[in-house]
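Let us work through a complete example step by step.
Step 1: write down the sequence.
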Amino acid sequence: MPSSRDVIHSDPEIMGGTPVFIGPECRFKSLFGYLAAGDPLKDFLEAFPTVTLEMAKGALEAAADLQSGKLELKRWGTPAREVPVFEELLKHHLGVAMSVTAGCVIDPVHEAGWIAYNEVMEREIEQRFGKGAIDRVWNQSATVYRERNAKPSEPGEDSTVSRRGSHLHRAGKERSKGDVTPPGPGRLYTFL
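Step 2: predict the structure and record it as tokens.
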């Protein structure tokens, strides 16, 4: 069980030192609560100085997309080689699309909005498909990628490829999962 230091934070610069819960779900719920009450976005941003305008816009964009029935994740940066397979399986298994928002040059201001968008979407995806659903699809895509891109066998070499535990075995040679290391939980698409 996490200690209160893991989920509660107090800072004199934030709400006059009043303890606040740590985590994107709290601040986004607060954002939607402010707007539902008819308060302007400006008031919310003044009350929650750790939330930037871009973050608020990202969360609101995600909420609008969810309202219209759209499940989507944003990705940016140079994609890992498994990303096309990941996108294919994400769409097939979960009905989640991916959109490219930027290439290698990333503006941190915009990135905060994309992260906020993905946090809202990820929460919805986990509510619908269970905790770790995106990670499971990533792990499957890494395996499928390796299977699809296995080198042809040499004469006399066994060409079977099978998944056993966390290792890929090919012709008696064990290759560790380190060939394709997925990014940490909850941020799969931010590093792609």
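Step 3: interpret the result. Helices lie at 4-7, 24-36, 41-47, 53-67, 83-94, 108-129, 133-148.
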